[in-house]
User: Which sequence fits this backbone?
């Protein structure tokens, strides 16, 4: 088994599929206890206070992940730590507007955008699994192009922040503001978990935060182009994701 290093800390051996297995067991236990305590202590804290705690606790071993639907959490985190790392998964299937939003965020915000790509290009994946895997087996496609790359991209971090909100869908209704991500061996932070869409809109307006242009074109939630459609008035915000299937999550937050 191979041992990998991340910013000077020794990590456990790679798992059978080649992804980093996370910190050693003693460190995992320490991080888990820390996450569980913070989840209780910070439940009523503001988003900025939660992110300041994350920055103070983890320093360079903390990052933000962003789908570039908007840059709200990245903007908040940059206020707590200018130059904060923002991890973006380039699946190869993004709308041009999403790539444009990433480029704009990198250009105008005080963040460091880290673009993570899958091991295979779309063409290489098509050659191995057949074309349009997203139509035939969306779970496998999401695993190959999102879940697995994220695990590898987060290898050098102890904690990561996401833009999950409780009001987005029933599957996210109980999202803690800080939790232990058992699968990845990381502390997972959802600083705007208690926010509503109105809160997001107000923050965007107050601070001039960049948002994906597709949000103004009928898309309430933005994912990969082949698996995302506009939503009709009154539909759930995530109704346009994997429409026509029972799939509701890509797997990053399960």
Assistant:
């Amino acid at each position: 088994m191979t041992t990998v290093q991340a910013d000077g800390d020794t990590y456990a051996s790679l798992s059978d599929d080649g992804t980093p297995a996370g910190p050693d067991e003693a460190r995992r236990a320490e991080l888990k206890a820390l996450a569980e305590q913070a989840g209780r202590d910070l439940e009523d804290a503001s988003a900025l206070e939660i992110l300041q705690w994350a920055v103070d606790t983890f320093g360079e071993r903390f990052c933000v992940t962003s789908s570039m639907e908007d840059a709200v959490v990245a903007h908040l985190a940059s206020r707590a730590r200018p130059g904060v790392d923002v991890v973006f998964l380039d699946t190869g299937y993004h709308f041009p507007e999403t790539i444009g939003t990433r480029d704009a965020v990198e250009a105008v915000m005080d963040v460091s955008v880290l673009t993570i790509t899958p091991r295979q290009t779309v063409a290489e994946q098509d050659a191995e699994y057949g074309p349009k895997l997203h139509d035939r087996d969306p779970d496998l496609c999401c695993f190959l192009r999102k879940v697995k790359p994220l695990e590898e991209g987060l290898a050098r971090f102890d904690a990561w922040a996401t833009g999950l909100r409780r009001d987005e869908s029933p599957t996210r209704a109980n999202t803690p503001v800080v939790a232990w991500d058992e699968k990845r061996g990381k502390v997972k932070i959802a600083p705007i978990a208690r926010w509503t869409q109105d809160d997001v809109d107000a923050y965007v307006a107050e601070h001039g935060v960049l948002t994906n242009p597709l949000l103004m074109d009928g898309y309430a939630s933005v994912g990969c182009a082949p698996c995302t459609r506009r939503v009709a008035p009154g539909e759930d915000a995530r109704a346009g994701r994997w429409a026509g299937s029972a799939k509701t999550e890509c797997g990053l937050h399960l």
Q: What stands out?
A: DSSP finds eight helices and eight strands in the chain. The helical segments are 25-41, 47-58, 72-80, 96-108, 122-129, 133-136, 138-153, 197-207. The beta strands are 3-6, 9-13, 62-65, 84-89, 111-116, 159-161, 178-181, 186-189.
